[in-house]
Amino acid sequence: MSPLLRAAPPQSGGPGSNELAQIAALLDTQPRSALKQAEALLRRRPGFAPAELLACQALRRLGKSASALPRLEALARRETRVPAVAWELAQAARELGESAKAIAALERLTRQQPTVSTGWFALAGELRKLGRPDDAWRADLSGVHASSHDPELVKAALAMNQERLADARALLETRLEQRGEDAPAMRLLGEIHWRSGAMSEALEYAARAVEIAPGFDLARDFLIRLLLQNNRLDEALEQAEVLIRSPLDNPGHALILASVLVKLGEHARAEALYRDILARRPDQPQVWQNLGHVLKTTGQQTEAIAAYREAVARQPTMGEAWWSLANLKTARLVDADIAAMRAALASIADTPGVPDAPDAHAEDRFHLHFALGKALEDAREYAASFDHYREGNRLRRALVPHDPDSFSAEVEATARTFDAAFLSGMGAGGCLAHDPIFIVGLPRSGSTLVEQILASHSLIEGTMELPEMMIIASRLQARVDEGEFTDFAAMAASLTPRDRLRLGEEYIEKTRVHRKSDAPLFLDKMPNNWQHVGLIRMILPHARIIDARRHPMACCFSGWKQHFARGQTFSYDLTDIARYYRDYAALMAAFDAAAPGAVHRVVYEDMVEHTEREIRALLAYLGLPFEPACLEFHANRRAVRTASSEQVRQPIFRDGIEAWTNYAQWLGPLRDALGPIEALYPGHAARTPALRPA
To answer: Per its UniProt record, what Gene3D superfamilies does this chain match (predicted)?
Structure first.
């Protein structure tokens, strides 16, 4: 029951208080008896307002709102300060479709009780019925603000923030049982489920909160973020397009729309949003940085540099912006930049921390170390550069979990699962589409170069690093983790031809949102898909797979000194990254043996030295004719989101092939962990220079 219905109880000990309490107790279970007793009391005490209100409440419960409404209107004219009368009048009017009368009553009610959210949400619903969406939106926002004063919700939010998730959930579920659907409670329940790892339930509650209160901006923002986490980009865009129309002037709404657009590859529109925000509020270092990211992706390098410099000018300790500047592979940071970064690092390193509190500058600190490592590398101060790279990696490694033993065991299990007997015996099945071309390998292996070359072909569309195959693989692995199967091999063996068809079609359908042209083929350059080559073969038997491989020392060192925005948790330790490379090479070798010729390998150094020969071989594997545009890949102005975005907009050059040798004296642990190069890099081991002693 709404608190509004309890807003005007009879004063204890007042005339007829016991009789009124008895009538009120009958309302929900015996409304006819309650009406009879209320009418009897009114005959004895004509015009007695509490009895008249109870009679009208009983009439509503009996489905006689038409009889209750005129009596409530008369009562409201006399009892102008009783919230319960306004509430009952509004409910009777709503039930009869008299929205104008309901709105008038609810406006009176919300003036009397502005901190009770129920009235605001009811008002919003009626305003929408009369075609007043902006007023309804503001009413919902007022309801959300009012709910921040609700003791039950405050108690539940406090329990949630203290990680007492079960207690918070129980409080909110009890509230919903007693009061019915309540948007703020459902929003909180959504977050509780999200924190508990129950994503489906989190999405369900967040979506319902928005459905009940369409003007609940915070709930819609939360829903968009959940949809993004689940790669449901079309739905996220739909919700973000609504949020941007909020009557509140909140730059955050434009920012979340821009983030969705970036994920969809709609960079021009995202750029326009960022520029609009900055035109009105230029003192926004984070927005300048975001703008820089978009400009870098679309090849506007000069403008990207300017945007990043605006960010660090406004916030000198903004490590990610400094790293973004340094990470522009064709840009150089000067002595003044190095001095500024060292000063920024000193200022946040000397900031006293609060015991047991999160380190507010942890990310700035490791970003600055990576940026200084790159700047000093460009200045050929290799010893100082290595020190900063090492410290940046140490700090980052402390923040991200990676279990190399467990990962190696998973890779070995995958190799055992997708052996020749399994692949040859699985028979027909899967989606027969020829559309996808997967480019796999380690980061910094030359995969972006391969992508740019192929995306320059008229029959191939370049997209980006798509997460869909990894999502499918994770969902299948979850069935093992939850005990449905003893291991991944048993789960894979259980997939019927229909299952494999459904999964392949899911991949094709989910990736459709990223396709902007009518080219028949498209690229998926998610490097980590090397772990799923067997699964790809099962569900997309006609898909092509290209393995981009680079010299182990060069590839691992390049990955180690590259800070990745997300994922790649193996890359922050020289031994870890070496083991990861070994796992990768072993699985690819196993798959080569199980399915000879299924994967085409592109060796980066060969592509650099014999570009046309390697491109022709690559296109022949794909069954495509050679096109000169593939040799002119650097003229392709498509968006590129990886760390190599500037390099692939230039002709191929050899400068970076042996850059790692400048650090050779410190890379003994990497070499030792890699082991024999020949096993990892067949036919090219002779290219490995001898390591100089440290």
So the answer is: P-loop containing nucleotide triphosphate hydrolases, Tetratricopeptide repeat domain
Calpha distance 377→518 (Å, rounded): 43
3 state DSSP class of 463: strand
CA torsion angle 462 465 466 471 (round to 10): 160
- Counting runs of H as helices and runs of E as strands, what totals does the chain give? 35, 5
Collapsing DSSP states into helix, strand and coil, what is residue 523?
strand
Element (H, E) at 342: helix 335-349
Q: What is the mean pLDDT of residues 580-594?
A: 96
What is the rounded distance in angstroms from the CA atom of residue 267 to the CA atom of residue 261?
A: 7
Tell me the residue type at 532.
Answer: H
Residue 610 has phi, psi (to 5 degrees) of -135, 65
φ, ψ dihedrals at 45, nearest 5°? -130, 75
692 — pLDDT class (breaks 50, 70, 90): very low
Q: Which has the closest alpha carbon to 326: 386, 264, 259, 374?
A: 374
Ordered by where they begin, the domains of the chain are 3-113 (1.25.40.10), 432-464+512-687 (3.40.50.300)
The pTM (predicted TM-score) of the whole model is 0.82
**Cα end-to-end span (Å), the chain:** 76
Tokens of 494: 């259980």
Question: Which pLDDT value is given to residue 677?
Answer: 84
Q: Which amino acid is at 541?
A: P
How large is the average pLDDT for residues 279-307? 94
Q: What is the pLDDT of residues 303-322, one digit of tens each?
A: 999 999 999 999 999 999 99
Residue 297 to residue 34: CA distance in whole angstroms: 70
Q: How far apart are CA 19 and CA 32, in angstroms?
A: 16
Return the exposure string of 598-622: e unless at least 16 CB atoms fall within 10 Å of the residue's CB, then b: bbbbbbbbbbbeebeebbeebbebb
Lookup result for tokens 């983030």 = 259
Residue 561 structure tokens: 């000194």
Q: How far apart are alpha carbons 683 and 685 in whole angstroms?
A: 6
Please state, in angstroms and as integers, the Cα–Cα distance from residue 462 to each residue in 438, 449, 457, 570, 624, following that order.
Answer: 11, 12, 9, 27, 16
Q: Which residues pair with 523 in a beta bridge?
A: 437, 462
